[in-house]
Amino acid sequence: MQVFYRPEQSVTVKSSSPSAGKPAQVVADWRERFGARLDFVGFEPVTREDFYRVHDRAYVDGVFALQRPNGFGTRQPEVVEALRYTSGSMRAAALAAWRGGGITVSPTSGFHHARYGSGGGYCTFNGLVLAALAVLDAGARQLAIIDCDYHYGDGTDDILLRLDLHDTVRHWTLGAHNKGNERQVLERLEAALAENLPGNDLVIYQAGADSHEDDPLGGVFTTAGYRERDRMVFEAATRAGLPVAWNLAGGYQEPLSKVLELHAITMGEALAVTGVYSQLAANAVQKR
After folding, report:
1. How far is CA 187 from CA 22, 93, 177, 180, in A?
2. Which of 189, 187, 250, 256 is CA-nearest to residue 219?
3. Domains in the chain: ranges and CATH
4. Which of 53, 76, 145, 178 is most buried when burial is the number of CB atoms within 10 A of its CB?
5. What is the pTM of this model?
């Protein structure tokens, strides 16, 4: 499985969120756990012009000039530079999945609260929508963003509305459907997958670890339910013959090893379906 990672996408931030520095730690953990089953691939960072496509130009320029805070509420120049690589990773993963079939991974966070003209919630620029636009530019007709971070992907909805993309990019966010017990939420997810996957060319899956019941900023799934969530998404895509590009999103438990364990569960479930899945998705690519 291809993992789109460069060290530049990981940076230390003065924040209560570990997300900015998480890519390096997740990758180190995955290397140890999964070894040769993963193929670590480089990519090109996005440019300021790429950000202009999904955000207000004045907002983008203000962040780069350090006149406006980033999503972490700081004005650290190293954070701004890292943002070119986090979105670059997500874009590269989405394009690789779209072109080659199968499952790809972007070990990144910090996207879905970034709105058209503002950031917040540890999110500065919306790499999910940026990646979706790149895939549409490459020839995809329609795709789905399935966001299973515990929190509502308000920024993604805002940008899709601004750019009039809601009919082209189907967006389902757990944050709008996370009330009730674990079984009820899983049933809503199952129904959403049945409704939103057919007819698409790609799934972008945001697998937030903050949807675990022990997370201080979220929580609905037990560990077993969390694993079932991931299995449900990957198997639904398998049945539909759809490629998937997934990323990390939130996760705030301490110590960080607890979050790494959850991201490893998602990777394990992705790897479990990779063989059959890659063939189905490759067949679908050949038919386009």
Report:
1. 30, 28, 10, 11
2. 250
3. 2-287 (3.40.800.20)
4. 145
5. 0.94
